[in-house]
Specification:
The complex is a heterodimer of chains A (327) and B (512).
Chain A (H helix, E strand, L loop, with lengths): L11 H20 L1 H29 L7 H19 L1 H25 L4 H19 L12 E2 L9 H6 E2 L1 H19 L1 H11 L1 H6 L4 H28 L10 H11 L4 H23 L7 H19 L15
Antiparallel strand pairs in A: 1-2
Helix pairs in contact in A: 1-2, 1-12, 2-7, 2-10, 2-11, 2-12, 3-4, 3-5, 3-10, 3-11, 4-5, 4-10, 7-8, 11-12, 11-13, 12-13
Chain B lengths: L11 E12 L2 E12 L3 E6 L5 H8 L7 E6 L2 E3 L4 H6 L2 E4 L11 H6 L5 E2 L2 E2 L1 H14 L15 H14 L4 E5 L7 H16 L3 E6 L2 H7 L2 E6 L2 E7 L5 H9 L17 E11 L5 E11 L3 E5 L6 H8 L5 E8 L2 E2 L5 H6 L2 E4 L3 H5 L6 H5 L10 E2 L2 E2 L1 H14 L16 H13 L5 E5 L7 H16 L3 E5 L3 H7 L2 E6 L2 E7 L5 H9 L5
Parallel strand pairs in B: 3-10, 3-11, 6-9, 9-10, 15-22, 15-23, 18-21, 21-22
Antiparallel strand pairs in B: 1-2, 1-4, 4-5, 7-8, 11-12, 13-14, 13-16, 16-17, 19-20, 23-24
Helix pairs in contact in B: 14-15
The chains are: A mainly alpha (327), B alpha/beta (512).
């Protein structure tokens, strides 16, 4: 019996993605622009989730459970927006990554150096982020959302073009991060060592892999990604900041990590499914095929999370050392 | 091979001189001096607490010596970490394997020193390296197998290859046979001999005398942190080594009269029990234990022994079957009720199920009847009575504790075990279930516990003994039941059975 993530198996993400693609084209052929609208909505709404899920994957694969993703996103959204409002977009985005990484550093200090319960440390991040951003929030600032970039030629492809090749900068970054992580986790020594640290830190330690350094590094890198995911919400998509604007997306990301079995591409596919479901309900509601209050539409991702976790969480195996301090 | 003409004593690869380590007032190792030659298998023998592990930790850089020096190939070295040690060619195979279960053999071997190709991890090269090493040293492994799917003996081989990959010339095996089946043990001894022939110096840590006699060239015996013997294996014998180790002559063979079994006390039919993961571990097991006999259960680890014991002792629900104790079905009874029926239990994991670590020794000694007179009157505990009783048991069972009011978790493993044994045997019982009663216990205490088990038998108690040590089973049992895949594969008369037969049935090789 091989564990699901062993790399010599054909990646399951590929199969799911292929099925989705076929379904999408079929839908596009039948319903035309409506299907395209749903797909576009799905990708746009899932991208911040996917980036945040990469944070979860990085952290848990090195053995640190990060439930503070929500807080790190919120900090990122806050710092990104006000940084961008004051000093420009580039500064804002950098500020978001840095403040997210600082959140990660806090978690790493607690979890790695002080051996604090990781759930508690993560909860602290969430509470502090909520309090901090709410306290310093000042209404009245406005910035425009980021421009949409097009990749020449590819952007003109039917269906796929508008979805993957006509997007905002951070969305492109997310695609790159997901693919990059998939490659580095499974094909480089860094990935091998990260896996070893998350599965059996003792084994890694005795062959000279510095467990603490890997955990610090990956948790901070993960935090930066979560911060960017936050910036995507405020700077890139809406061009505004609201209190608690992450609305639980950090926790959705954790569900996506589980559904994606701690693999970047599969997690991205899982996020896409989330987005697709929301998009579908949205469109059906818009077309008045179904008629429910918008609050119920907004509930779709959270309801899905409950179902997904109930179905998946008992069948998949997290990294063995996740949540445990070492030594 | 061609190395056989080498002169012994010519090349010392590792030399330890006057190595001393103190922990506060406790001296763990005192002026330990020893030499390891190229291609030599050196047994490091000693009881628990004799200073073996401290010595090893200093040799692999986990602890710094307070005095003395370590020389490798003639140079004095200071080892600061396991990485330092491996850089100097010293590697240790721990009792608990340091392998990542979900990774492949090749990945585990190269972890930390991975071959790369154009910046990416080079799987093919890693597998090739493992294959080359496995051929050169006669250690058969499959590089692409996932470690968690391999049997323990194979995992140990992976550990050894891991050490060799890192260029280890001095290999320290820390109690390597503790987890192995008899067949695997023989295989390991063969591998060790092979490695030695290829010039690897090996320190073989053990407290099993048979392995010392069978597989090593020289023995260094440690007692209370001092080297009390350094002899060629050929010039000594088991009794001599045991005496050196304990500091007094030890009776290795338990003196016991032939059993006079009486009525059947425990009758198990068609027992089925699940393990922790909900898979069937005991699959239709039948067993009888009679009064006044010791029935030993032999078997490779994880063949249902633990689940069997826990089902008998009402610590685990059963799925099917009957368990009849002295003519009475015990279905639905809880631990306490069974206990009142006269079941005594020496659990496998004394720290988890046998003792409350934070309690005083005295409290643990009355844990099975603290609420009964004379230890409790009208719901109020009588500490004077408890103390008197505890003093008596401590004297009778030779528990080494500073006081009856010492915290139990401060005692050594052997003494903790004696607390459990004392408590369980100090009360009249009809059935004694003893699971690994001497695991992690020093030789002196093993001898004592063995005598106590035989004494219980002679009082007419039915004793069910589960042990991973074949020596122990043969020394104590009147009958031996071999358990395999949750069923009794054979029941043998201990007097006529041989180690080899039992080993083969355990491994599933003999047709029974």
């Amino acid at each position: 019996m091989r564990p699901a993530w062993v790399r010599r198996r054909p990646p399951p993400a590929l199969g799911v993605a292929a099925a989705l693609l076929v379904a999408a084209f079929l839908a596009y052929a039948i319903w035309g622009f409506r299907a395209a609208a749903v797909a576009g909505f799905a990708v746009r709404s899932c991208t911040p989730l996917a980036l945040a899920a990469m944070c979860g994957i990085l952290c848990e694969r090195t053995g640190v459970i990060n439930i503070g993703i929500e807080g790190q996103m919120l900090l990122g959204a806050f710092a990104g927006f006000f940084g961008a409002a004051a000093f420009g977009v580039v500064f804002g985005v950098l500020a978001a990554a840095i403040i997210g990484a600082l959140g990660g550093a806090f978690l790493a200090v607690c979890a790695v150096s002080w051996r604090v319960d990781q759930i508690i440390a993560g909860a602290v991040i969430n509470i502090v982020a909520m309090g901090f951003t709410t306290f310093f929030y000042r209404p009245g600032f406005v910035i425009g959302s980021l421009p949409t970039w097009q990749i020449p030629l590819l952007a003109d492809l039917p269906l796929l073009g508008p979805i993957f090749f006509r997007a905002q900068p951070l969305a492109f970054l997310t695609f790159a991060v997901v693919i990059g992580l998939q490659v580095t986790l499974f094909r480089t020594t860094w990935g091998l060592r990260t896996t070893a640290v998350g599965e059996h830190p003792g084994a890694a330690d005795t062959v000279g892999v510095n467990v603490a350094r890997y955990r610090y590094g990956n948790v901070m890198l993960g935090g930066a990604l979560a911060g960017l995911a936050g910036a995507m919400l405020s700077v890139e998509i809406t061009g505004s900041f609201d209190r608690a604007m992450t609305a639980g997306r950090g926790f959705l990301a954790l569900a996506i990590v589980i559904m994606g079995r701690w693999r970047p591409m599969l997690a991205w596919t899982a996020a896409l499914l989330f987005g697709l479901l929301s998009g579908l309900v949205n469109q059906l509601n818009f077309d008045q095929v179904i008629d429910v209050p918008p609050q119920f539409v907004a509930m779709v991702p959270y309801g899905t999370t409950i179902v997904v976790l109930a179905v998946f969480s008992t069948r998949v195996r997290p990294p063995a050392a996740a949540g445990r301090p070492y030594p | 091979m061609s190395d056989s003409e080498e002169q012994p004593g010519a090349d010392v690869v590792l030399e330890v001189r006057g190595l001393t380590k103190r922990f506060g007032p406790v001296v763990a190792d005192s002026e330990v001096t020893l030499q390891l030659r190229r291609g030599e298998v050196l047994a490091l023998l000693g009881e628990n607490g004799a200073g073996k592990s401290t010595l090893v930790k200093m040799l692999v850089g986990l602890l710094r010596p307070d005095a003395g020096e370590i020389r490798i190939g003639g140079d004095v070295v200071r080892l600061r970490s396991p990485r330092d040690a491996i850089g100097r060619g010293i590697a240790v195979v721990h009792q608990h394997f340091q392998l990542v279960p979900v990774m492949t053999v090749a990945e585990n071997v190269v972890l930390g020193a991975e071959p790369t190709r154009r910046g990416l991890f080079d799987h093919r090269k890693a597998a090739a390296e493992v294959r080359a090493l496995s051929q050169r040293f006669g250690l058969a492994v499959e590089p692409d197998a996932v470690v968690q799917d391999l049997p323990i003996g194979m995992q140990q081989r992976v550990e050894i290859i891991k050490a060799l990959y890192r260029g280890a010339e001095i290999l320290i095996l820390d109690e390597p046979t503790a987890v192995l089946t008899p067949v695997e043990t023989d295989e390991l001894l063969r591998i060790v001999a092979e490695l030695a022939e290829r010039g690897v110096g090996i320190i073989f840590i053990t407290h099993k005398l048979r392995e010392v006699m069978n597989g090593t060239d020289r023995v260094v015996v440690l007692r209370d942190g001092r080297v009390v013997g350094d002899v060629a294996t050929a010039d000594t014998d088991e009794a001599g080594l045991a005496a050196l180790m304990v500091g007094r002559p030890v009776v290795l063979h338990v003196d016991k009269e032939p059993a006079t079994p009486g009525a059947t006390v425990l009758e198990i039919r068609g027992l089925e029990v699940d393990d922790d993961r909900g898979r069937l571990a005991v699959r239709g097991l039948d067993l009888d234990v009679r009064a006044g006999e010791i029935l030993g259960i032999a078997g490779v680890q994880d063949n249902g022994q633990r689940e069997l014991v826990e089902a008998i002792c009402a610590m685990r629900p059963r799925r099917a079957g009957t368990v009849v104790l002295a003519g009475r079905e015990v279905e639905g009874l809880d631990v306490r009720a069974l206990h009142d029926l006269g079941v005594a239990h020496i659990p496998e994991d004394r720290d988890k199920h046998g003792l409350v670590g934070g309690y005083f020794v005295a409290e643990n000694l009355v844990l099975n009847r603290f609420d009964q007179a004379p230890f409790s009157r009208w719901g109020r505990r009588d500490f004077a009575a408890i103390q008197r009783w505890a003093r008596q048991l401590i004297a009778d069972f030779d528990v080494r504790t500073p006081s009856v009011y010492a915290r139990t978790d401060a005692l050594s493993g052997g003494n903790k075990q004696k607390v459990v044994v004392a408590r369980e045997l100090s009360r009249e019982s009809v059935l004694l279930v003893a699971a690994q009663p001497t695991r992690g216990v020093d030789v002196g205490s093993i001898e004592f516990i063995h005598q106590q088990l035989v004494a219980a038998r002679d009082r007419g108690v039915a004793v069910l003994l589960v042990s991973a040590e074949l020596e122990e089973l043969f020394a104590l049992s009147d009958r031996i039941a071999v358990i395999r895949e949750g069923r009794v594969a054979a029941v043998l008369d201990a007097k006529s059975a041989t180690r080899e037969t039992v080993g083969l049935i355990m491994a599933g090789a003999a047709g029974h």
